[in-house]
Design goal:
The complex is a heterodimer. Chain A is mainly beta. Chain A has strands spanning about 5, 10-15, 20-25, 30-35, 45-50, 55-60, 60-65, 70-75, 85-95, 95-100, 105-110. In chain A, strands 2, 4, 5, 9, 10 and 11 form a six-stranded mixed β-sheet that branches. Chain B starts with a strand and ends with a strand. The chains are: A mainly beta, B mainly beta.
């Protein structure tokens, strides 16, 4: 069963613009993670935010977590064509097992 | 450089065949996972293993079994392949973080087609 759900399903922007993706989930979590997948390849971990954290940064990535609303957002600033990929949030409703959403397909046009 | 490798990138099998998908990690991780990924359905967990010879069913274990005889290797077995098992299969591994989830490292995936 899907725990996290990303929104929007697809997003198309111009290079240099910011991209924001959202994730909502249903049950309590220990942490929430974001992953990227380039076309036809395996997933790459981007960032992990713990349930007691509200915001985390990694390079051009900024993740927020609101446990009261059971939601998270991923902001990519100054996007590049190489950021074109699918982005997934993953939550851990049960110890080390992750449940992934269906992803947001981000297209960055040069 | 951490690495998860999968035995094949592309595989074509016939209905009824027994299929083995192999995954090897070189990070000494305790946990290993098998997912399948289908358009519109996202990633779904088939099985995972938290220790050698230990396994637990995921969300969609029907039609699959697994084997973990060594810490670094986790095999997914399709006992009798069917066309609805045509999919992208992804293996992942992670270390144990005091019972919490941690970053998962993924292999490149195996695209399996069952004819």
């Amino acid at each position: 069963s899907q725990q996290g759900e990303e929104d929007p399903q697809a997003l198309s922007i111009q290079e240099g613009e910011n991209a924001t993706m959202n994730c909502s989930y249903k049950t309590s979590i220990n942490n929430l993670q974001w992953y990227r997948q380039n076309s036809g390849r395996g997933l790459v971990h981007l960032i992990l935010i713990r349930s007691n954290e509200r915001e985390k940064h990694s390079g051009r990535l900024r993740v927020t977590l609101d446990t009261s609303k059971k939601s998270s957002s991923l902001l990519i600033t100054a996007s590049r064509a190489a950021d074109t990929a699918s982005y997934f949030c993953a939550t851990d409703p049960r110890y080390y097992k992750l449940t992934f959403g269906k992803g947001t397909l981000l297209t960055v046009n040069p | 450089d951490v690495k998860v490798t999968q035995s094949s990138r592309y595989l074509v099998k016939r209905t009824g065949e027994k299929v083995f998908l192999e995954c090897v990690q070189d990070m000494d991780h305790e946990n290993m996972f098998w997912y399948r990924q289908d358009p519109g359905l996202g990633l779904r967990l088939i099985y995972f293993s938290y220790d050698v010879k230990m396994k637990e069913k995921g969300d969609i274990p029907e039609g699959y079994s697994v084997s973990r005889e060594k810490k670094e290797r986790f095999s997914l077995i399709l006992e009798s392949a069917s066309t609805n098992q045509t999919s992208m299969y992804l293996c992942a591994s992670s270390f144990s973080d005091r019972g919490h989830s941690s970053e998962q490292f993924f292999g490149p995936g195996t695209r399996l087609t069952v004819l």
